[in-house]
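Before drawing any conclusions, I needed to go through one protein's amino acid sequence and its backbone structure tokens, quoted below without any editing.
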Amino acid sequence: MSRTPPPTSTPDFLRTLHRKRAVSDDGTRISYEVLGEGERVLLLANGLGGRLYAWEPLLEGLWRDYRLITWDYRGLFDSDTPTSRRRLSLVDHVHDACAILQAERCQRATFVGWSMGVQVALDLAATHPELCAGLVLMNGTYGHTLATGFQPLVSVPGVPKLLHFLIESIHGHPAVADRVAQLARLGELPTTAMFALTAGRRGIALRPALRRYMDDVLGPSFDNYLRLFQELDAHSVYHLLPEIQSPALVVSGLLDALTPARQSWEIHWRLRDSKHLALLRASHFSLLEHPELVVPAVRTFLETRARW
């Protein structure tokens, strides 16, 4: 375990940051981070490609009262890539989360998921209800991601198979992957323009986070990142939602094209004990765009509805 001494200009919550490693059930080493001064635990399940900076408004609002834990998914960033690509499945990420909670001697936590993390959090809650004090589900879906991704209004037949074909065409061809990564970077400008619509004046301040997100996604882990998209599409907990007993707060953005808001409504309707914060002027990055709405809602949920 190492304590990271941040520079004096960093946010106060980073002064409590520790970076650690846990070993999952198949021997894969998982890199994770812990910060905060509270006793109650929030397990933050990242989006695909997101890291600690994607949670900054939540960290700033809650670090004094909670212990917050997040991790790099296997195959990404500082976590190891398993020996078999088949071990990049959603079930394996659930095992990794359990290994981290065990390493931290945490018997119960609220699972907070964003994007991909919603699928991880829901599967974890369904598989290990004894560990789950509550669920906060931001801008995500219950599964079959490629069937609805980038299709905000209706699902178009044939799109998932086409996307699988494109991903498989990139795998094993570094030159093609580099070219795709270069083209993907062209999306930074329209996304920044979208932030001006969804976040107003705050939109300009989000540009560094967006650039870091793209650097992470399109970096050395890009091939595993694409495979994880396929694993997200292969996974679904739709049939398990009515069985989940934990209270939940679902957050959606009407302008979310990656995980359309209609899926958050489905999650909300199928869960037994759920509240829904539906943001009309928000995209896939609701927390960053509207922390003044999301963070107080999360705090209220943690204080009044989570079953610690």
About this structure: The beta strands are 2-3, 18-23, 29-35, 41-45, 67-71, 109-114, 132-138, 248-253, 274-279.
